[in-house]
Description:
Elements: E1 3-9, H1 13-26, H2 34-39, H3 45-49, H4 68-73, E2 85-91, H5 98-105, E3 110-113, H6 119-130, E4 135-139, E5 143-145, H7 149-158, H8 164-173, E6 198-207, E7 210-216, E8 219-221, E9 227-229, E10 243-244, E11 252-256, H9 257-263, H10 275-285, E12 289-300, H11 310-325, H12 328-333, H13 335-352, H14 358-369, H15 371-383, H16 389-395, H17 408-432
Parallel strand pairs: 1-2, 1-4, 2-3, 6-12
Antiparallel strand pairs: 4-11, 5-12, 6-7, 6-11, 8-9, 10-12
Helix pairs in contact: 1-5, 10-11, 11-14, 11-15
Amino acid sequence: MLVSVVVVNYNGGEAILDCLQSVQLHTGHLVRSPAAEGMMGAGTDAATEALPRPTQAAPTETTPTQTARTQAALTEAAQPLCEGVEVLVVDNASDDGSPDAIKEKFPWVRLIPSGANLGFGAGNNLGVRHARGEYLVFLNPDTLVSEGWLDALVGELMHGGGSREANSREASSGDAGPGDAGSGDGGSREALNVRPEVGLVTSKILMADNPDIINTCGNNVHLTGITLCRGLGEPRTAMGKVEDVSAASGAAFAMRREVFEKLGGFDEDMFLYMEDTDLSLRAQLAGYRCRYVPGSIVLHRYALKMTPMKVFYQERNRYLTLLKNLRWATLAVLLPAALWAEVITWAFVALRDRANAGNKIRAYRWIWSNWKSILRKRATAQSLRRAPDRAIVRSMSIRLDFGQATSPALALVGHIVFDPIFALFKLVALAIVWW
């Protein structure tokens, strides 16, 4: 068995070096020990206590969120990883010197120059074409991994449905599904069990600057396709069981190579944002499940910020994801919810990104001008269908976490106004969508 860890770098600076050093330090032999078996899926104190901690030392050449153990190790000679694991870094034409630094400090890394900034999806696809692994792990360059992170992820895939402990916990928890995972609107796995194989597994991701706080535990996909962090801001002790989620987080997740290739990999047109959601929905459409594994703990240098093109990529890719993966009849049923989403996203743009408001129009234009290409992508996704749309809709959340984008007062107003509306839309959709 060989595991390939793929990291896409674009001017990652010190962050990519810290990431690789943490992988070197915290990636052991992929042998299931009783300790690892106990940590996997349970999110136990043993697992969380083993995670790297941000250093409180005075600033040095390393980054403020780099672990103390990593800082010390950077002064030591690089050691290769354990047998059975390879690390590939796809460099998207960085000009900050990070490729040379990677060559110097981590000679065991397979550095693959792309020659241009291909974006996240195309960069990862290039890495997979060079990878030799039976299992593929995708890691953001601004992450730090903890002890046992890889064993927990790959172990869940190897069990094809989780460890014995995870299965027993699921049995005792009843018919919980993605819709229950922090979205507060119920739901069940229903037809997602048409083919019970696990397709994607995603880590428990904590804030690098405060590892006691969750960044995301898988992602919540809203009824309108808007995707948000699941569990953002909650204590790290929350969400401590293995469970199905709406989507994996692109910051740290794994899947079997055969599943990745069957799905056609990442959609390279997306360039940035939502690629993980699209891949997750295509996997569920093909009958696979997305699983959250709290025993795999990763720190992420996360900051919610607006960039000039962010609204364009997020909105364009949201439309593209829905158009590719849902039946036309389902899209028609969800049209009222989609129109309300337009009201909400336009309000967000007016409040947070007014200078780039034209990007919403640009997203509409892209969809229109690339309609034939979208239909071809849709045909490919639908040809792999093994699960009904009803299962996908059931897994979707009714709650938009407005607190991730605005003030607490406005967030409260948003929940009071919109949560009941989207709850009604979902009830109506589930009453109609039996296909």
